[in-house]
Amino acid sequence: MKFNKWTLGLAALGVVSLASAARADEAKLSQVQTALSNTTLSGYVDTSMEWNPTGGGVIAPVAYQGVQANGNGPKSNGFSLNVVDLALDKPEDAGPWAAGYHVELWLGPDAATLGSSRDSYGDSQSFAIRQAYVTLNTPVGNGIDWKLGVFDTIIGYESNSSPLNPNFTHSYGYTMEPTTHTGLLATYKFCDALTATVGIADSKGPVINGSPSTSVPVQSQSLKTYLGTLTLTAPDSWGWAKGATLQAGVINGVFTPQPPVATFATANDTTTSWYVGGTLPTPNANLKLGASFDYDTAYNSNNPWALAGYINFQATPKLSLNARAEWAKNYLSSVVGLESNITHPENNAEALTGTLQYNLWANVLTRLEVRWDHASHDIYGSNISTINNNPGAASLQENAVMIALQAVYQF
User: Fold this and answer.
1) Strand partners, 105
2) Are strands 180-191 and 194-201 parallel, antiparallel or unpaired?
């Protein structure tokens, strides 16, 4: 065994023996090995290619919610590294007072879309802590599972992780939802059919450890965000419908602007996000349906909402077909921050997305996706002060088509 020079010096003076030092080092090493013995490393590398045949300029609403809800605009007509995800996990054991942890890091351009790395609004980086929390179990009733730290939001049909979603691009509803919170969550499973989650967090926004901006008034620092969901799961006795889920959730707290969301609410405004969504198997075991509804009060009196429907067909073990249809009300002016022509004030958006997924290589998810977005006519950039019949206004495209190829290696 090798010893450092300080240990050798103390041994020469007779202060310590090399045998005792060796036992101490072995004990420390054993503690480290025990702590890490059940820790796992996982993650993925997400890459893509995108082509916009309708043009690569500013298009609404793809330019704002686009691929991966990128606040810097679409990754049009080019190749992209989206994100590298690295996760360390120590799951809870079967004991009554079990504990564990989860750490998940994002590296790459899409790390900025979480917003968790922002010291102030708009200060984006290519590194973010997506999640970092301690898990604890208390043996009360069926057991209460706790999360303390930074965690993904508890509402929404789609995940922050693209490989877990049915499509490459995100829905309008996703862009209206928070991404991450810093706080405490408690989950209790009453029975196989009913699970409840409640929590408290610093804010609705993703900035770790509190306020979204250095300009937040002092009085808002004491305001907290409250989270809750109820999830119903169909039992095995429901036959072909077993496993169907229905979730309802609400998040109420301090509004935290983040791209692509416009800053219509002030830093100490309390706003509410509502969500209802679910999945439904069909008599055909390869066909599944899904739906989601998001409603948000964070945008003054506009109160935008988004409705989406999903279809998944597993044609073969490697081939699946996924489709999504969606409609967002009061979306463009409220969420994206665009302005409508006074003569035609509509600011809604619709989209159709089709995704072909084929897993040819081991551990690799590959997708080909075609998406069509339609924005209400006469939509202009938000920096245009006079927009009605203004020939100098930069009118955005009403229709946008995107074709994308995605490859994700998961490990």
Assistant:
1) 86, 129
2) antiparallel
Contact 75, 67 (CB under 8 A): yes
Taking alpha carbons only, the member of 139, 109, 140, 115 closest to residue 129 is 115
Please classify residue 292 by burial: count the beta carbons closer than 10 Å to its beta carbon, then call 0-12 exposed, 13-18 middle and 19+ buried. buried
The tokens describing 332, both together, are 């463009």
Angstrom distance (rounded) from CA 197 to CA 183: 13
Q: Name the amino acid, one letter, at 63.
A: A
3-state secondary structure of 320: strand
Omega of the bond leading into 345 within 30 degrees of 0 (cis):
no
Provide the residue ranges of all domains of the chain, joining segments of one domain with +: 1-37, 38-410
Crossing angle between the packed helical segments 5-12 and 18-36, to the nearest 10 degrees: 150
Distance CA 108, CA 80 (A): 10
- The architecture that CATH gives domain 38-410 is Beta Barrel (2.40)
Cα 363 to Cα 68, 161, 370, 408: the distances in Å are 21, 16, 23, 8
Report the amino acid identity of residue 186: A
Q: For position 65, what pLDDT does the model report? A: 41
CB 240 within 8 A of CB 283: yes
Report helix, strand and coil shares of the chain as percent, to nearest 5.
15, 45, 40
Is the distance from CB of 302 to CB of 339 less than 8 angstroms?
Answer: no
Question: 0.70 exceeded by the pTM?
Answer: yes
Q: Phi and psi of 216, rounded to 5°?
A: -65, 130
Instruction: Give 332's DSSP letter.
Output: I
Decide: 58 and 396 in contact? Cβ < 8 Å.
yes
Q: Which helix (H) or strand (E) holds 251?
A: strand 245-254
Q: Any bridge partners for residue 327, and if so which?
A: 307, 350
CA dihedral 115, 116, 121, 122 (to 10 degrees): -50
Adjacent-strand bridge partners of 307: 293, 327
User: Could you tell me the two tokens for 257?
Assistant: 């602007």
> Which tokens belong to 116?
């968790």
Q: Per-block average pLDDT, block size 10, for the chain (411 residues)?
A: 52 53 53 67 95 61 40 65 94 89 93 67 70 96 95 95 94 90 96 96 81 49 87 95 96 66 50 95 96 84 87 96 94 66 65 95 96 71 43 59 93 94
